[in-house]
Amino acid sequence: MVAQRLEEANILAIYPSAKQRLLLFDYDGTLTPIVANPTAAILSNEALRSIQTLAADPRNVVWIISGRNQSFLEQLFGHLTEIGLVAEHGSFLRSPGSGGWEDLTAKVDMGWQEEVTKVFQRYTDLTLGSRIEKKRAAVVWHFRQATLDYATLQAAECKKDLEGTVGKRSPLDFINGKCVLEARLNFINKGQIAQRFVDEIRAVSGKPPDFVLCFGDDVTDEDMFRALRNSSLPENTVYSVTIGESQKLTDADWILSDPTEVIATIMMLNRSDGYIGEQGTGQNGNSKMNSKVLPVPRSYLLGSGP
């Protein structure tokens, strides 16, 4: 389906009065723009402070749910213990307030990684500019710096090879992302993680969250959107938001153009105390019912890192 443009009034009709909020953010392409060198996708200090302020509200539970590995997330967010971290699409978790990681793959045989790596290596040798990344619970073939048309065709052939060999023997999914092909376990994904977080809030408080906001831009984030849509949560409490072009097909209900609007939304939520949703006025009395999410400058997003 095609998502609707997200406006401030959509969220502010319910966010200020919600008592148990769950906020889920993908990282690359959502909080930061996609860049040629992934190591350069580092949030600025200003953007980090905005996320930290959001997580500091006792009504909010904030998670960063990323395909990145633990090391990268620790480097960027490790000092922000109030923020929950999910690495490798749900394989590893660090809960808010915890200093340790939970490994959901600890008892899983990872012998398939060697076979996948050998297949990827054949296509790396054929594709100048591509590279292999071996994670603890996944293997990824990156081709962002290769000739895109050629590499995309190679990725399609590689996926067929994997599905016809190791994919028949191991419980794997082969996911085409943005200039990547990722081999991962098929029973761990962002959708299952999102449902787990909803269930945890229900288990602790006896009630489900009364506001859920979920942002993502890629195919792996569609798992979250589907899980939330199929959950038992009331429809008017769930805001699934994809990032990208206005006509993209998605299971999200709402859409924003790019990460500048995601950060702007976070800043707007941090300013939202005193908003009266029904009347459409904030504490300064200005009407907001027709206001749009105005993007922050692109320079606000990226910094040099910790």
Walk me through the structure.
The chain has 306 residues and is of the alpha/beta class. It is 30% helix and 19% strand. It has helices spanning 8-12, 45-56, 70-77, 112-126, 148-164, 190-205, 222-229, 259-270; strands at residues 4-5, 21-25, 60-65, 84-87, 92-94, 102-103, 131-134, 138-142, 172-176, 180-185, 211-216, 238-243, 254-256. The strands form two sheets. A nine-stranded mixed sheet has the order 1-13-12-11-2-3-4-5-6, sandwiched between helices. A four-stranded antiparallel sheet has the order 7-8-10-9, with helices on one face. A hairpin with a 7-residue loop joins β5 (92-94) and β6 (102-103). The longest helix has 17 residues, at 148-164. The chain is globular and about 55 Å long.
